[in-house]
Design a protein that fits this description.
Layout (H helix, E strand, L loop, with lengths): L1 E7 L9 H7 L5 E7 L5 H11 L3 E3 L23 H25 L5 E5 L3 E3 L12 E5 L12 E3 L1 H8 L3 H6 L7 H11 L3 E5 L3 E3 L2
Parallel strand pairs: 1-2, 1-4, 2-3, 6-8
Antiparallel strand pairs: 4-7, 5-9, 6-7
């Protein structure tokens, strides 16, 4: 399979986790990495480029002129760090845009698109069975009153809807609270995407 892997956010542990991530994705697969980080240390970015050989990447500072925190209404969101959540969604937007740029420029087809964080350590391998239409595959863990927002995969059209999340629009329509897992789940429901829980086991090591 030809797989596009969209890495977003911090690059901590990118060196330590490279072999684990690459093996978990299946050595038999052709993997193209894409990255959107923001203001990562240059040495970490250099390490990532050397090991992962990304097709396209950005490490530009993120700028935005809205406040997702103003929609805060429930006690459960008091532990959400709004700037980190905002950057999380913007990086997801930016990295899928890089993938689309590459596809349009080179007319490349990907069998599967994977979105993941670099600080995940996998206990098993992905089993990329034939992907169903309008279906997103998400591990059965870390839902936190919404749905896991760290790892997902599916066909390109599904992953575009998943990564191009518009948190402001969802909050304006009162479809969610300002909470990352809740917003991720609301976005999937908004696009009427079918969810399948995949057997990907992992833990975080930052």
């Amino acid at each position: 399979m030809h797989i596009a892997v969209l890495v977003y956010g911090r690059l901590n542990k990118c060196v330590e986790h490279y072999e684990n991530i690459r093996n978990s994705l299946g050595q038999e697969n052709t993997i193209d990495f894409f990255l959107s980080s923001d203001n990562s240390k240059q040495e970490l970015l250099d390490d990532f480029i050397k090991l992962y050989n990304p097709i396209l990447y950005t490490n530009e500072l993120i700028h935005y002129d809205y406040d997702l925190g103003k929609y805060k209404k429930k006690e459960q969101t008091k532990y959400v760090f709004i700037p980190n959540m905002t950057s999380h969604f913007i990086n997801k937007n930016r990295v899928i845009a890089l993938l689309e740029e590459h596809i349009h420029k080179h007319d490349i087809y990907y069998d599967c698109v994977v979105s993941l964080r670099i600080d995940c350590v996998f206990r098993n391998t992905f089993h990329f069975t034939p992907l169903e239409e309008n279906t997103i595959y998400i591990p059965e863990s870390y839902d936190y009153d919404g749905i896991n927002d760290m790892i997902a995969y599916g066909k390109l059209d599904v992953m575009k809807k998943y990564n191009y999340i518009n948190a402001v629009d969802l909050l304006e329509k009162s479809l969610s609270i300002p909470h990352p897992e809740s917003l991720t789940y609301a976005n999937i429901l908004f696009h009427k995407i079918k969810i399948k829980r995949c057997k990907v086991s992992y833990y975080l090591e930052r």
